[in-house]
Q: What sequence folds into this?
């Protein structure tokens, strides 16, 4: 009954949406409405105005910097919510059901992971630092860092992983993206410009350009590493299971 | 209906299909994790739709390089917006899944009907 009603409703919604698709402008046409307003200006002046030849990075870090600041705050809030609901892991003591199972990851898997993880993290650093010139950027690199640590945890188990990246070294990094953004924003105010202004008035063109590059780099690195660490923390909080937790040695 | 236009806008059609699939999953499946999967499928449909809007036929990536005219570059704004969207989707999924873990510990079930203690919602 529920399924029948739902299918009927979905059929109605589907017909309306497909009809609307028929009224949309043809896909891929360079004269479509989305390409006639602000996009040409971003594409033509993005490099000189925002200082990044990758226009997507220019949009993220400059034209729509407030958007990105909110986005960074959103993942930080998500981490706060997950930690509030699930709690933090205990370094070296928290375990998952995989850690107590008798079947361990084989030597082949562990050796492969040991060789791969540094390469993956190296690639992630490249993605983060090259986000201004090639496709990539902070969030993408952060996702790759998080994925490499998840891979390590799956092969070596949670206690080993939490000993390698302990809680006390992760906590300052988690809020690094928000702090980097606020620092960059307030630097603009200190120099007498608006919040999140990268070009400072009253400086020589060369100095202003250097400051802008440095600030964008700081924000990208902040987003990248904080994003990766936040994904790691969320994963650690999710996969640990209270009933398998080890007791700390009393000695 | 403009059928030739629909056949040309295939990406939009697929995003409609994905949207309906996700909506069906959310509404019909009683398992909470499957509901979250449905939500993610719906989000993906919106991402596909918006990125497709910015497409340019045989265009280039929006990276300023020698010899590439801005007119042939794809629209960077949907891509930047969707990057934000993906991050928000990941965040909401993480929070929803952590709530699911707590719900499973408390009720020993992820079935919405078992949690509510009745067979049908209506």
A:
């Amino acid at each position: 009954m529920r399924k029948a009603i739902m299918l009927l409703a979905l059929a109605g919604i589907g017909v309306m949406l497909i009809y609307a698709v028929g009224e949309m402008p043809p896909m891929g046409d360079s004269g479509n409405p989305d390409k006639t307003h602000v996009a040409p200006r971003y594409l033509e002046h993005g490099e000189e105005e925002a200082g990044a030849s990758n226009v997507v990075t220019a949009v993220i870090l400059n034209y729509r910097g407030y958007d990105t600041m909110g986005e960074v705050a959103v993942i930080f809030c998500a981490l706060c919510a997950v930690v509030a609901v699930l709690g933090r892991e205990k370094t070296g003591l928290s375990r998952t059901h995989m850690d107590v199972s008798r079947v361990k990851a084989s030597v082949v898997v562990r050796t492969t992971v040991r060789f791969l993880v540094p390469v993956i993290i190296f690639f992630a650093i490249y993605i983060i630092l090259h986000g201004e010139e090639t496709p990539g950027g902070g969030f993408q690199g952060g996702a790759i860092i998080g994925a490499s640590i998840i891979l390590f945890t799956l092969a070596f188990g949670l206690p080993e992983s939490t000993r390698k990246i302990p809680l006390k070294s992760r906590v300052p990094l988690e809020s690094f993206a928000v702090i980097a953004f606020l620092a960059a924003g307030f630097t603009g105010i200190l120099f007498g410009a608006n919040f999140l202004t990268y070009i400072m008035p009253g400086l020589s063109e060369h100095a202003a350009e250097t400051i802008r590059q440095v600030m964008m780099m700081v924000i990208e690195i902040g987003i990248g590493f904080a994003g990766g660490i936040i994904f790691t923390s969320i994963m650690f909080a999710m996969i640990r299971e209270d009933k398998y937790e080890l007791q700390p040695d009393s000695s | 209906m403009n059928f030739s236009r629909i056949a040309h806008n295939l990406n939009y059609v697929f995003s409609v299909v994905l949207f309906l699939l996700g909506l069906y999953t959310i509404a019909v499946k009683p398992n909470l994790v499957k509901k979250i999967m449905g939500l993610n499928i719906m989000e993906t449909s919106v991402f596909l739709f918006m990125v497709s809007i910015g497409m340019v036929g045989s265009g280039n990536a929006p990276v300023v390089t020698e010899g590439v005219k801005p007119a042939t570059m794809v629209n960077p704004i949907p891509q930047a917006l969707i990057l934000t969207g993906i991050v928000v989707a990941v965040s909401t999924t993480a929070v929803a899944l952590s709530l699911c873990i707590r719900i499973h510990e408390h009720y020993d079930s992820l079935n919405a009907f078992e949690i509510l203690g009745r067979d049908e919602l209506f």
User: Anything to note?
Assistant: The mean pLDDT of chain B is 88. Chain B has one domain: 3-52+75-116.
